[in-house]
Amino acid sequence: MVGKMVRDEWGRQIGIVVSVLMDDRGEAAWLLVKMGDGEFKRFRLSRVVADGSDVILLSSLRKSVEALYKRAVLLKRKRKILMGLKEDNLSPEMLDEMSKDVKRDLGFVEGEAKFLLRKVEQRLKRCADQMRDINHGIACLQVERDMGRISDEVFSASMKMMLSGLRNLMAERDSLLEARMKLVELLRKELPEVQEERVQEPIKTFGGPIDVEVEEGAADALQA
């Protein structure tokens, strides 16, 4: 992987792999990447996948949400099984101890879900802010071109970069909205196999649906 370009899941360039770092056992564990701003950062190999001539860095936030969601489903299933075991010959003390462990773990999952939900909302806001800036930039660029202040070549190159960035941001936003939905389901206890525990109180998220308008000309170019 050394020498390959590193991109995120949505195609944006992050940096270049300059080395593979080993752990105390001499096994490859991290990639050392020179970032676009000149800094050097390391990323666990478990977060990267090879994709032709590039290396794709998977979102740690999305992986955390998916892992937490799976753990919550498993814990809900465990609790349901424990409720069924009450009719067996297990001692009440043993059942009580096992129930306490599950309840404690479920409390941890809920706290982690709230923490991740805040992070998802922050990332969604960043996406929305960038999309608005690009939208405004496209409109301003068109005005400059119409007034003859920039050449068609410069206009075309700048538009290409902004529209590409807009596509990437839309893809990231969709991924974040999916993660947010999973976290809200988790907090509402609407997970698979435990639908009977559904509560009616709405969960207030830290931001509403992200709806960014795109200038008419930009939308046409994006569809093209």
Give helix and strand order, one letter per element, not per position.
Answer: EEEEEEHHHH
Query: How many angstroms does the end-to-end distance come to?
Result: 34 Å
Task: Give the structural class.
Answer: alpha+beta
Question: Which consecutive residue ranges, at least 5 long each, have pLDDT under 50?
Answer: 194-224
Strand fraction equals 15-25%
User: How many domains make up the coordinates?
Assistant: 2
Largest sheet: 6 strands, mixed
Mean pLDDT: 80
| Whole-angstrom Rg | 24 Å
Number of helices: 4
Number of strands: 6
Strand order of the largest sheet: 4-3-2-1-6-5
- Helical percentage: 55-70%
Concise structural overview:
The protein is α+β, with helices and mostly antiparallel strands and 224 residues long. It is 56% helix and 16% strand.
Question: Could you walk me through the main structural features you see in this protein, from its secondary elements to its overall organization?
Answer:
The structure is a single chain. This protein has 224 residues and is an alpha+beta fold. The chain folds into 2 domains: 5-58, SH3 type barrels (Roll), CATH 2.30.30.240; 61-223, no CATH class. 56% of the residues lie in helices and 16% in strands. It has helices at residues 60-85, 92-146, 152-187, 216-223; strands at residues 5-8, 13-22, 28-35, 40-44, 48-51, 54-57. The protein has a 6-stranded mixed sheet, with no helix packed on it. A hairpin with a 4-residue loop joins β1 and β2 (13-22). The protein is elongated, with a radius of gyration of 24 Å. Mean pLDDT is 80; it is low at 194-224.
